[in-house]
Amino acid sequence: MRVLGIETSCDETGVAVYDTDRGLLAHALYTQVALHAEYGGVVPELASRDHVRKLLPLVREALAGAGLAPADLDGVAYTAGPGLVGALMVGAAAGRALAWALDLPAVGVHHMEGHLLAPLLEDPTLKPPFVALLVSGGHTQLVEVAGIGEYRLLGETLDDAAGEAFDKTAKLMGLAYPGGPELARLAETGRPGAFTFSRPMTDRPGLDFSFSGLKTQVLLAWQASDQTPETRADIARGFEDAVVETLAIKCQRALEQTGARTLVVAGGVGANVRLRARLQALAEKRRGRVCFPRPAFCTDNGAMIAFAGALRLQAGQHETPAVTVTPRWDM
Ligand code: KG4
Ligand code: ZN
Fold first, then answer.
1. Distances (CA, A) of 58 to 5, 88, 306
2. Residue pLDDT, tens place only, 319-328
3. Of 176, 180, 177, whose CA–CA distance to 166 is shortest?
4. Three-state SS for 272?
5. Is 56 annotated as ligand-binding?
6. What is this structure's pTM?
7. Mutate-to-test residue for ligand 1 from 140, 299, 300, highest number of ligand atoms within 8 A of CB
8. Which ipTM value was assigned to this complex?
């Protein structure tokens, strides 16, 4: 089964073709980062318009990359939520229209299920049960995965998501949007231990997170400092270490609580080098396993939607022709 996947939930237009026999055939991505940079964040209306502009050229690019004609497809998957409603509507309308015109089944995919399943796209030997750490700009969740579609939420953030905390912290130290990856790059040159911030909610039982207080701690440290580039790097390192350590402590707890041996990490913050190294060390210590998608498939992309959609279509799930999206949607 060859499935076209479309992702337009936020500021990335992603399209991919996944073949259930041959794996990922092609993927194409356009990022709107430059468009939103001057506003310091994603402007929903501009995002929708840019998806409209880029989506069909990317569909053509992905099909050409896969060496396929539209008639060679067996299904269409698109992100149906959660995300920005206008942006979602672009992918949903285009996906449904393509499916209708080609007489194919279409399926709306949960964006976070796409992230959650992305590591399986990279490694066909990886199978549930496992614990998933989902760390993106909008979500921070620990999920027990018993099977495809069998998800139990173990814990989540009570305020900012981990990626959001990276972005906001970067902004308050004057880094350009999108600050998360830039802050992580800066942290590489910072001295460990020069600044120490708390590991929120690790001193009490449970698997929930809270990252908004860290941002305030960083703001106070930054305002009281000499604000040199070296100090900024040191603070970035202190902040990153606090987030990474907090996530690692909760992952360890989730593995102990569920008895799972495998940890899967997905979402944009999963691209963070220090988080990857720390969770790798945790897995080795527990003689378990940790799996990450390649960094490009940690952040938003069409491949994860094509893959999750293919699994759903293979299981016989598809929808009536109405176009609907769900901007707020629990998994
Ligand atoms: O999954 P994603 O592309 O979009 C959402 O679904 O939110 O995640 C984007 C988030 C942003 O907050 C970004 O700052 C963060 O992932 N991010 C990183 C890194 N790369 C992306 N955070 C820390 N370190 C990175 N290397
Ligand atoms: Zn995402």
1. 11, 16, 14
2. 876 677 888 9
3. 180
4. coil
5. no
6. 0.93
7. 299
8. 0.98
